[in-house]
Specification:
0% helix, seven-stranded mixed β-sheet, four-stranded antiparallel β-sheet, single chain
Length: 124
């Protein structure tokens, strides 16, 4: 059974940092692109970042480029998102997701498995 479980969210002040983790089970993350997406209150889901199977290619939404870093540990079957210089606009529920081979790595509606999400709140 495929499962994705996010952790590491919380309340942080503007300018602060958080590191999200996503533990996968039921499949090998090494065989897939993996992604992070987020949904802010009252807004649609937004793709945040994706990473190639071996980590050789990474891409980011313009809104987080230069502040967020996606990484993976295939041996631990885990995905990460390091978030620095957080802003209030980053407040959202963050989800990790698996990117099937048939989907583009930014095409979040086509991602096939999702975690339940972790809340990130950036506020003073």
């Amino acid at each position: 059974q495929v499962q994705l479980v996010e952790s590491g969210g919380g309340l942080v002040q503007p300018g602060g940092s958080l590191r999200l983790s996503c533990a996968a089970s039921g499949f090998a993350v090494s065989r897939y692109y993996m992604a992070w997406a987020r949904q802010a209150p009252g807004k649609r889901m937004e793709w945040v970042s994706s990473i190639e199977r071996d980590g050789s290619h990474r891409d980011y939404a313009d809104s987080v480029k230069g502040r967020f870093t996606i990484s993976r540990d295939n041996a631990r079957n885990t995905l990460y998102l390091q978030m620095n210089t957080l802003k209030s606009d980053d407040t959202a529920v963050y989800y990790c997701a698996r990117v099937p081979d048939t989907a583009g790595y930014t095409a979040w509606p086509e991602f096939d498995y999702w975690g339940k999400g972790t809340q990130v709140t950036v506020s003073s």
